[in-house]
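Quick check before the chapter quiz. The format below is the same one you will see on the exam, so make sure you can read both the input and the output lines.
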Amino acid sequence: MELSTILQPECTSCASPGSKKKVLELISDLVAAQYPSLSSQEIFESLVAREKMGSTGIGSGIAIPHGRLTTIEHPIAIFIKCEEPIPFDAIDKQPVDLLFALLVPAEQCQQHLSTLSSMAEKLSDKLILKQLRKSSNSTELYQVITA
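Here is the expected output.
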């Protein structure tokens, strides 16, 4: 699946959320602004429920928060670069500055895992990480992540 089919430029952001809770709220608000039929509270609760099962901070300053929603028919992606790294309970105990969030329909488990795997692989590319971290605005960030 092409990332640009599930990630809109409006769901890509350079931000300074300050905390794990605030970044999950930001993700929820970005999605709700683009998809008015979705409630930011519902999105936030889905992301928090997954985080309670274990942090989605995969190391090297990267987190891949995700959740399932019964109210959507196709996956929705969000990409955020934090101006200042935030504590995220990552596996390597390092703060996080790059977050790829994914919301999927509750019944699309296999597609969900495939998309998460593809993104984790992309984010393991040191050149891509360097370009993402050098991006100074949302447009640049979107161009790098979808290239």
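If your answer matched, good. Residues 20-34 form the longest helix (15 residues).
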